[in-house]
Design brief:
Elements: E1 9-11, H1 26-40, H2 42-49, H3 55-66, E2 73-75, H4 82-87, E3 91-94, E4 99-102, E5 104-105, E6 109-121, E7 125-137, H5 138-149, H6 154-159, H7 163-169, E8 174-180, H8 187-206, H9 211-218, E9 232-238, E10 242-247, E11 250-256, H10 258-269, H11 276-290
Antiparallel strand pairs: 1-2, 1-3, 3-4, 5-6, 6-7, 7-8, 8-9, 9-10, 10-11
Helix pairs in contact: 1-2, 1-3, 2-3, 7-10, 8-10
The chain binds lauric acid (2 copies).
One lauric acid (DAO) binds at residues 117, 187, 190, 193-194, 197-198, 221, 225, 227, 233, 235, 247, 267.
Amino acid sequence: MVSLRFPFLFSQPPKPKPKPKPPHTKAASTFLAASAVVATAGAAAIAICQDPKDPFLKKALNSVFSNKSNHCSLPLWGSLSLAENSSSSSTVVESRTGVSFPSVLDDSKRLLGIGLRKKSVLGLKNIDVYAFGVYADDNDLKKFLSEKYGKLSNPEFKENKEFNEYIIENDICMTVRLQIVYSKLSIRSVRSAFEESVGSRLQKFGGSDNKDLLQRFTSQFKDEYKIPRGSLIDLSREQGHVLCTKIDGKEVGSIQSQLLCQSILDLYIGKDPFDRQAKEDIEHNLASLLHK
Ligand code: DAO
Ligand code: DAO
């Protein structure tokens, strides 16, 4: 089954759609047009879906058609402004776990993509640990991206290999929201998992001697904390490369370290991400923002 991943499909009550601004990529505009057709005249949309020249559009439409049962979903491209998003208080549902994410966080952060962190246990089974959403501050994004990449056309942009590195390294306010789906998570297993995942990134970006930093990070998470299914963990890079961690809305600590922020973001949008599809969705959404 093709999952309902990309472009964002916001599950919303069926109320009048805000008027989208004109999208700026061919794929986006065709997708929006095709989405309207899906609602009214499926047969015509299937004809568009079969356009062999546009695999991106085909993928988007396939998602819509393969999830027809989710009839309240409103396909929403990056063409809506943050204010329009926010006023409709829309959410996006991670289809494999049913976890929903607000499309706007803290009034100014835009949801760029959602995904799933799995973990293989003893090579025997793969468990779904948490669903995640990656957010970035709209103003920071526009400022940084247009300064650096504003002049590139869409295909050039996609070729630009250093793009993700730029987002990962720079002082752009971002949040990765984790929502726990595994019900038997112990603090001990969390510590050992992030010693492996975050630890390997600290080593990759900072060299071998980062035990202290990892220790400072992990020591924020006290043994008595409980993280049952449904817990929300927000990992935010705030201005000045400060990593602030909240559990269920309560701050548990913050650490100023570019290396740590970069290592955390690399897990989701770096070279070897937890969910490759999520990373691709994020790239596409960033591209569509740039070309608004
Ligand atoms: O039950 O032993 C087990 C498997 C536990 C896997 C834990 C993976 C933890 C991943 C990090 C979660 C961060 C919130
Ligand atoms: O999934 O391997 C991973 C890395 C997750 C990094 C974030 C960990 C934050 C965990 C907070 C736990 C609170 C008890």
